[in-house]
Every structure is written in C-alpha cells, then in structure tokens.
Amino acid sequence: MQQFTFPVSYTEILERIDKIDPIQYATTRNFLDGAVTYLSPYISRGVINSQQVVESLLSKGYSIDSCKKIIQELAWREYFQRVWQHLEDDIFNDIRKRYQQILHTQLPVSLLKASTGIIAVDKGITALYEQGYMHNHIRMYTASITTNIGKAHWQIPSQWMYYHLLDGDIASNTCSWQWVAGTFSTKQYFCNQENINKYTGTFQENSYLDRSYDELPAMTVPQELSKSTSLQLKTSLPATPVPELDSSLPLLIYNSYNLDPLWHKEIAANRVLLLEPSHFNQYPVSEKVVEFIIGLSKNIPGLQVFTGEIKNIPGLQQFPAIFSKEHPAFKHYPGKKEERTWLFPEVTSFNNSFFSYWKKCEKLLMKNNTYFSMYTIKQKAG
Ligand SMILES: Cc1cc2nc3c(=O)[nH]c(=O)nc-3n(C[C@H](O)[C@H](O)[C@H](O)COP(=O)(O)OP(=O)(O)OC[C@H]3O[C@@H](n4cnc5c(N)ncnc54)[C@H](O)[C@@H]3O)c2cc1C
Questions:
Q1: Can you tell me the distance from the alpha carbon of 285 to that of 128, in angstroms, rounded to the nearest whole number?
Q2: What are the structural domains, with CATH classification, of the chain?
Q3: Is residue 87 helix, strand or coil?
Q4: Which ligand 1 atom sits closest to the C-alpha of 29?
C-alpha cells in the first residue's frame, strides 16, 4: 500500500510547499505515484492558503506558464467554494438534471468493505481508512463506480468519503461527486480497467470494467456493487473545559476550516478553536480527522480548544470585538467575518462550468504576469 504521511507541524508543512516541482506536477499528477503535492489537508483546513503556494513557486523563479497547471488545480477549490456561496444548501441536492435513473440512495457495502473488485480502488479505500487520504484519480474512480456503474445516488457515498478525508472540504467533496455523477457537469464520468491500470500501475484483467467506454453506460450493476446498506456516522469530539477568556481582549474564532497560525498573530487576543457538535452532526468526521484538526491547532500559540456551541462561549456579549473568517458553514457566528485569502479574489461569480470560471482567472493571469505579487503588495499595504 502507498504510505501517505501528514505531519501537523507548521515547519514541516512549509517544507512540503518548498518541495513542489510544478513542471513534474503538470505531467505526472494523474498517476498514483505522480508528483502531487499532498497539500490539500492543509489548504482545506485553512492552515495555509493557495496564494502562499503559488507565491512560493514564483519566488523560486518558476514562470506563471510553468505553474499554470497547478494554479488551475488550486482554482478548483475556489470555484467550488464560490458555487457553495452562491447556491448555498442547494449544493446538497442534484444541481442539474440527472442523465440516468438511480437504483438506491444508500451506501454500496463494497465501499465499506473495500471490496469493489477493482484492485486499485480497494487499495485506495483501505488507504483512506488507514491514512485519511486518497489520490484524486482514485476518488474519481470510486465515485464513478459507485454512481455510474453501481447506480447509487451520490449523496450518502459522498458523506462516507468526507468522513474519512483529512482534507474533507464540504464544497469540493459534494460538487466533485456531483461532477462525476453528471449532476454538475455535461456528462457522467466513466473509467474503464485500461485507464485504471494505466494510472495506478495495476495489471488487472477481466474485471467488470474491462470493456470499451461505449459498453459502460448500459451495463447492468455488477454483483460486487449490488448490495447496499444505510450509513451511520458519528463524530467523537473531545470533552474540554470551558475556555478562560479575558473580556478586555478581542475573541478570534478558529474552526476546522480556519487553523491559520499567521492569522492576527501580532495582536493580543482570546483564541478559541470552536468544535460545535451541531456542525459535526451535520457533517460527521472520523476520529482520525478530529485528531488531525487538534494536532494542527497546536501551531497556534495560546489557542484553547472548546467543544460546544458558539452561544456557550462565556461572556460572548462582552468582548470588544469578535473575528472569524467568512465560510458558508459558519454564517451563524457573531462579529466580523473577514475575507478568506483567495487566489482570484476578483472572480466571485458562479459560472455554469469550471472552465468558464477558469477563463476569467486565466485572463487575469495573462493580463498581468505579476498578478500574484501585485496582490500581496496590495494586501500588505491595506
Ligand atoms: C469524488 C471526489 C471527492 C473529492 N473530495 C475532496 C475533498 O473533500 N477535499 C478536497 O480538498 N478535495 C477533494 N477532491 C479533490 C482532489 O481529489 C483533492 O483535492 C486532491 O486529490 C488532494 O491531493 P493533493 O493535495 O495531493 O492534490 P494535488 O494534485 O497536489 O492538487 C493541488 C491542489 O489542488 C487543489 N485541488 C485539485 N482538485 C481539487 C478539487 N476538485 N477540489 C478542491 N481542490 C482541488 C487542492 O487544493 C490540492 O491540494 C475530491 C475529488 C473527487 C473526485
């Protein structure tokens, strides 16, 4: 099995940014052993942001052109976040009309048991359980087998995957599953065994996917994918003391999507990592994910972890100011919601497809080769 490691120390995370080779990345990223960055758990959790990644590459002398593929990939996350901002809870339903009938709205048992019969996918699911990560192509294969071959609705399986991912990002996960299932794209995504073997280094033959692309849409559901079950997910949050807070200082609210050690680092403030049971009831995550979040929070000096609802923070009305970062899952926080750091802050519109969104981003890149450094200078000045 591939071994993935996700250290939680900020220094090691920055070292990981330093190791990116955007040229290798562009040509090998689709392969299981390609030069992918393994940065999504940190970007997703708001420890670092995509702008930091791009600026690090440009500061080493890589041209915008040689970084274009990685910038485009980073833009996918922003795109899905914009979709969530615009469509709100509608992203949890089919965004567009579906192409085919679904047979059930449960979880295929073979996902639970890593027994889909496709070797690369089963290994990928085992690694997901043990290590909390799955390569993008394996995610696509898993979603495609589940929805387009097994004819399950995408929603429950997407919750299953989200539960285990260290990089779980509600918008990216939900919209990517919909993209594969064809309810947020112009066609369903299919993969055959030849494609899987090519990108994963397996040599499997005679599986139910060992056919031409023309045959896949009309296939009957293979036995391996025919059993389904309901899904019960629960999050175990740590029991924590009520935080001790100084009501003369501002309150900074951190959460599972804002674990940025540099955020208002220079000011004296109350810093609370808020783990709201209501949030995790709605979007459950595994113990490994909770551990990871708490591990990452240790990079923030003076932070207190609090399992409880926002309204249970003592003296909430008394702080001179309350700050958090804007995020569709945390609209209910009081106080000022600061803008997240976007790669393309100007492109806020929700377009019908990623590629029409990307065209606008690309235009900005082409117009101004110093786009990113200009933005940093503006931010620093502001
Ligand atoms: C069914 C499915 C579910 C997914 N669920 C999630 C999820 O919950 N959280 C998540 O972060 N990604 C999700 N992805 C996207 C993608 O698989 C991961 O971001 C990527 O595999 C992370 O590994 P990496 O950092 O090594 O990727 P790299 O190839 O190194 O990519 C660089 C960066 O590009 C960004 N990126 C690329 N594609 C996407 C995308 N579709 N959505 C968001 N960011 C992207 C990530 O920030 C990633 O770190 C999903 C994809 C699919 C097909």
A1: 13
A2: 10-90+344-381 (1.25.40), 93-229 (1.10.579.10), 251-338 (3.40.50.620)
A3: helix
A4: 29
